[in-house]
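Reviewers of the previous submission asked for a worked example of the structure-prediction workflow described in the proposal, so we include one complete record here. The input consisted solely of the amino acid sequence. No template or homolog information was supplied to the procedure at any stage.
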Amino acid sequence: MIAFLAMTPALGPRGARTASVFFGFLVLAASAGAAPATDSPAPGPGALRVSVETIAVDRRGTWSVGTDDADLFSGSMGELQKSATLVGRQAQNPPREMVQLTARITPALKAGGACALRVDSETRRVVAGAKAGSRPPPVDRKSVAVLLKPDEERMVEVYASPVTEARLAFKLRCAPATGAPDGTSGSEPTFIDIVLSVARAEGDQDLTPLKTNDLRATLGRSASNLFSFNVPLEAGKGAAKRYRREKIEAQISPTLISGGRLQIEAGLQGEVATVSGSEATVSHPIVTRETLVLAPDEPHAFDLEVRSSGPEEGWSRVRYRIEITCRF
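From that input alone, the workflow returned the following structure tokens.
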């Protein structure tokens, strides 16, 4: 399985951003073998911002090991690695335990903005002090699944030490991810090159390419392009001239990049209208919108079909294919 590092800056205790560097989630490409978070319907393509605060409880009390967050696409897996030294609660010569925690976290977007999280954790440890054994302790494994409502957080235990009586837990939060409002990543803007092409066909005829345009946008900003055509029609009543007016505007909004893939909001709106010199204009609106997750140079096509209200308009059916390809 191929791994991609996709991080947002680490968060410190109580949400304060620290000067520490990029650490935390290693986003793994989704595969057929990835375990779903629950048995509910397949997740949508949207990305989720997963926040994990690691909490330790030992002789020193309750303290935060640190907070990490990452944008993960619904159904994909992120790997979090944390290390800590835990001090036993014993009064005399308390043992010290060095633990290395690895957690694989899979989010899934559910109806109503809820977020299902599956957490599979492995903890390896080395004990120093009076209770240190001659053999290395076995790996401690735990799995848990939680369903979080919007703005809800949940604490789940991921490790309980049989030696120091210390514990590690995750405070989990999850919400739909949004791109940076100023379209930047760090101090430099992230540019997305977008290729838009349109093809059209009358009825059952083959699609004919008409136009290709190159656009550029940044994360959090939109790029748009208007395709406009006038197609002559046979004369209407009283030999009045008429034509079919076609307008389709494509609006592309890149929102975030995670795991080598790009999430965009893509919308099409416009109309196909029959315009006559002697009769009222007959309009057929076009409105569609999708959230897409694309790899670099991966095309996605919108196939549209517009039908007239009857033979009196001078045409019956027109089809369009609008293709989007992004490079980043």
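Confidence is low (pLDDT under 50) at residues 1-24, 27-43, 180-185. We consider this example representative of the routine output the project will generate in years two and three.
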